[in-house]
Amino acid sequence: MNPDAKSYMNNRGIALIITLTVITILVAVTFELNRQIQAAVTDSSIVRDRLTISHMIKSGINIAESILIVDKNASEIDSLQEDWANPEKIDEYLSNLTFDEGNILLDISDELGKIQVNSLVAFPKGRDFNALQKDFWYRFVGLILLQQQDDEEFMEEIIEPSAIINPVKDWLDADDNDAITGLNGAEKEYYQDQEPPYLCRNGPFRYIEELTRVKGITPELFYSADQQLLGISRYITVQGIAQLNDKFTYDGKININTADLPVIAALLPVGQDFLAPEIYAYRIESSDGQFLHDLNGLTWYKDVPGCSDVEIKDGLLTTQSDVFRIECSAVLHDIHMTSTVVVKREKDSKSGKWFCKVLNWKNE
Predict the structure, then answer these.
(1) How far apart are CA 319 and CA 301, in angstroms?
(2) Residue 343 CB burial class (10 angstroms; 0-12, 13-18, ≥19)
(3) Which of 58, 130, 142, 166 lies in disulfide reach of 185, CB 3.0 to 4.6 Å?
(4) Which pLDDT value is given to residue 183?
(5) Is 196 helix (H, G, I), strand (E, B) or coil?
C-alpha cells in the first residue's frame, strides 16, 4: 500500500477513536448533569416539603393552644368532657386549616392527670419524703408490680415497692451522702460504681427519661415492651412546679377528671382499687350527645355507684390543670413529622389575657 494512503487510513482511525471518545464523554457528562439536576429537584422538593410540614405542625400547635385558651376562659375546671379532649371537636378546628396537600393529626392531654414524680420529696427543702405522696406511690408501684408478677425475670430484680421508691427519693433529695433511704436506696457511691459512672441528680427530675438512670427503674418497668402490661412512663410527669413565696414546690395534686385508670386505682384506698374502672367510665358517660355527670367538686366520685363510702385524701386531688401535652403529627407525600409540645397556660400581668407558654418542644 502507498505510504501516504496508509498514513491517511491511520489518521482516519485515530479521528474516529477520538470522536467516539468525545461522544462517550459527552453522553456520560449529560447523564451526570441529568442525575445532578434530578437530585437537585428532588432535594428542592424535600426541602420544600419539610418547610411546608414544619408550618403544618406549627399551625396544628397554634390550633391546640387556641382551644386551650378558649377552654380556660369558658370553664373553671378541666375534664375529659371538654373540647380539647374530644377528637371530633379537634378535627372540626383542624378543618379550618387550608393546606392543599397533606394531613394533620392532633392530640391534647392533661399533663397533671399524671403522677408528678418530683412531688415524692417535700420541696423547697427537698430532703424528706412528702408523706402523702409516699403512701400514694406505694399503692401505685404496688399495682404496677402486681400486674408484672408473671414475669419471673422482672420479679427477681424488684420484689417490693421500696426497691423503686427509695432510690427515686434519694435521686431527688438534696443530701448526697452515705445516708441512703432504707436498705435499698442509692446515692453517689452506687452510681459511681456503674459502667460508665455518672452522678446522682440530688434535685428534681428534668425529663421523664431520667428515671431510667435511677437504681431499680428497669426498661421493662419504665417502658414495658408488652402492650398488655403497664410501663410507668405513661403515667408520670416531671411537670407540676409551683411557686411558694420566692421558692418552688410540687404539690403533686392529680386532676381526677383526666387521670388514667392506673392512676385512679392508686388514688383509691387499699382494697378499693377495683372501683377505678367505674370512676374512669363515669366521667364520660353520655346520652344523646350530652354528658350526664357534673365533675366540678372534688368529691364527685362519691356519686359513682358503689363509691359512696370511698375517701380519697383531699391533698391528692384537684379538678384543674394548666399544663397540657400537645402531640401534633403531619404527613406530606413521603415525609412524616411529629412534635410533642408541653405548654402551660399563664395570664399576662398587663393585659390580663391568657396565653400558652411552651415548656418543652421535641420533634421526631
Answers:
(1) 12
(2) buried
(3) 166
(4) 85
(5) coil
The residue type found at 342 is V
pLDDT for 364 equals 85
Answer yes or no: are the C-beta atoms of 117 and 137 closer than 8 Å: no
> Which residue pairs, CB below 8 angstroms and at least 24 apart, start in 31-34?
none
Cα 108 from Cα 72, distance rounded (Å) = 14
Cis peptide before 124 (omega within 30 of 0): yes
Please tell me the predicted confidence (pLDDT) of residue 286: 94
> How much is the pLDDT for 262?
93
**N-to-C CA span, the chain:** 78
Question: What pLDDT score does 97 carry?
Answer: 83
Contact of 238 with 204, CB cutoff 8 Å: yes
Please count the residues of the chain: 364
Q: Environment class of residue 278 by beta-carbon count within 10 Å: exposed (0-12), middle (13-18) or buried (19+)?
A: middle
* Ramachandran class of 206: left when φ > 0, alpha when ψ lies in -120 to 50, beta otherwise: alpha
Domain boundaries, the chain: 3-112+323-363, 113-318
Cβ neighbours of residue 32 closer than 8 Å, sequence gap 6 or more: none
Write down the residue that cell numbers 388514688 correspond to: 267
State the pTM of this model.
0.84
Is 3-112+323-363 in CATH node 3.30.1300.30? yes
**191-196: long-range contacts, CB 8 A cutoff, minimum separation 24:** 191/215
**Distance between CA atoms of 140 and 197, rounded to whole angstroms?**
30
SS3 content of the chain, % helix, strand, coil (to 5): 45, 15, 35
Select the CATH number that applies to the domain covering 113-318 from these four: 1.10.12.10, 1.10.40.60, 2.40.40.20, 3.30.70.380. 1.10.40.60
212: helix, strand or coil: helix
Distance (Å, whole) CA 302 – CA 295: 11
> Which residues of the chain fall below pLDDT 70?
1-13, 36-44, 148-159, 176-178, 225-230
264: three-class secondary structure by DSSP: helix
Is residue 326 classed as helix, strand or coil in its secondary structure? strand
Task: Please report, as a single letter, which amino acid is at residue 315.
Answer: G
Note the pLDDT of residue 108.
Answer: 98
